[in-house]
Amino acid sequence: MKHKFNYNWTLKDAVFTKDKGKVFSCFACGGGSTMGYKLAGFDVIGCNEIDPKMIEAYKANHNPKYAYLEPIQTFKLRTDLPDELYNLDILDGSPPCSSFSMAGNREKDWGKEKVFREGQSEQVLDTLFFDFIDLAKKLQPKIVVAENVAGMMMGEAKEYVKKVYVEFQNAGYQLRIEPYLLDASTMGVPQKRRRVFFVALRNDLAGQFMEQVDMFQVAPKLQLNFNEPEIVFGKVRSEYGKDYSETERGKLILNAIESDKSISDINMRINNINSGFNSMILHDEEVRGTITAGEKDWRFYDKMGCSDLDYQLCGSYPKDYNFMTQSKEGPKYMIGMSVPPIMTAQIATEIYNQWISKI
Question: Active-site residues: which are they?
Answer without folding.
Answer: 97
